[in-house]
Every structure is written in C-alpha cells, then in structure tokens.
Design goal:
The protein is an alpha+beta fold. It has six helices and seven strands, in the order ααββααββββαβα. Strand 1 and strand 2 form a beta hairpin. The longest helix is centred in the N-terminal third of the chain and has 21 residues. The radius of gyration is 18 Å and the shape is globular. The strands form two sheets. It has a five-stranded mixed sheet. InterPro entries: Maleyloyr_isom, MDMPI_C-term_domain, MDMPI_metal-binding. GO terms for molecular function: isomerase activity; metal ion binding. It holds the Pfam family MDMPI_C.
Length: 178
C-alpha cells in the first residue's frame, strides 16, 4: 500500500523525468556520450528515446484496443534508427552473408527515405537508404514496416507484401529482437 506522499513523489517524477534528458542534451547536443553503439553526440539519445516512446505508445494503444497512427516520416526514421542500432551490433549477421533484403515504404512523399537496402555480412549487417534488387522485398506503409520490425504486427500481416525468398524475412524477424 502506498501513502499519498509517495504517490505524489512518483507522479512528480513521471511528469518531470521526460524533460531531464532533453535539458542534458540541450546543454551541448554535440558532446560525446556513451550509448550502446559506442560514443555518439548527446542528441543521439533524443532520437533513441523518441522511437522508444513511439513503440511504447503503440503498446499502450494495442492494450486498450485503440488506434495508434504513426506519421510516415517518423516511422521511416524509426526504421533507419533501428537498422543503425542493429548494424552497430557485430553479432547481427542476419540475413546470411551475401543475402540482401529491401524494405520499401509505400507512403507518398518519402522518396529514398522510405527505402532501405540491407546486406548480410560475415560480421554483421550493412544497410543504406535507397532502392535496389534483393533476395526478398517487403513492401507496406512505413508505419506497418516499423511495427513489423518491432514485432507489434506479425511479419505475415496482410498489410505487408513479401516478394522473393520469404525465409530471409522470417529469419530476420526471428533473429533481430531488441
């Protein structure tokens, strides 16, 4: 059982804590800070926390059974951020060495920011924004691609079109959990 004082303290902490990292970054956005991917500019954390918050907002919406729209540009940036995190992990050798995967967001206006080419390598993955031919291509709205990568919708959801070697996509999803 919690007393009113501890609940008040918790409530204040929940309300005030989101501004703390923003204030720290605002002091010097280019200051090198620790991240799970090595030293990065402090502003790296704002992007990381933004996408983490988006995913948890979706989790809450799914639990409540309400809609959870994500703007296409935000979802596309979330995909790029996620790929950057995975590329920084040397143990992420999915797809297998030499295999390729293309993600293509079908939203209007994203251009090259809505396409990602991923290549498997001996020591991890490489990726770049852009169009190309691949062993498997996955097409859908940026939000749906992002939610599939985050395991919030199944990889075989009807909102996604998978063409080519489907096994590359299912193996990717099975081996790239956060």
């Amino acid at each position: 059982m919690h007393d009113a004082n501890s609940l008040g303290t918790t409530s204040r902490w929940l309300q005030e804590s989101p501004r703390l990292p923003l204030e720290a970054v605002a002091a010097d956005p280019d200051a090198p800070v620790w991240t799970g991917t090595g030293l990065q500019p402090a502003r790296w954390w704002v992007r990381r926390l933004l996408h983490e918050s988006v995913v948890h907002r979706v989790d809450a919406a799914l639990a409540l059974g309400v809609d959870h729209p994500i703007e296409p540009a935000l979802a596309a940036d979330g995909i790029a951020e996620w790929l950057g995190l995975l590329a920084a992990r040397p143990d992420t050798a999915v797809p297998r060495e030499g295999a390729t995967m293309h993600l293509h967001a079908t939203d209007e206006g994203l251009g090259a920011a809505g396409e990602w080419m991923i290549r498997g390598g001996a020591s991890g993955i490489g990726w770049e924004q852009g169009h190309g031919t691949s062993d498997v291509a996955v097409r859908g709205a940026a939000a749906d691609l992002f939610l599939a990568l985050m395991r919030r919708i199944p990889g075989d959801d009807d909102r996604l079109v998978v063409a080519g070697e489907r096994e590359h996509w299912t193996t990717w999803l099975a081996n790239t959990a956060f």
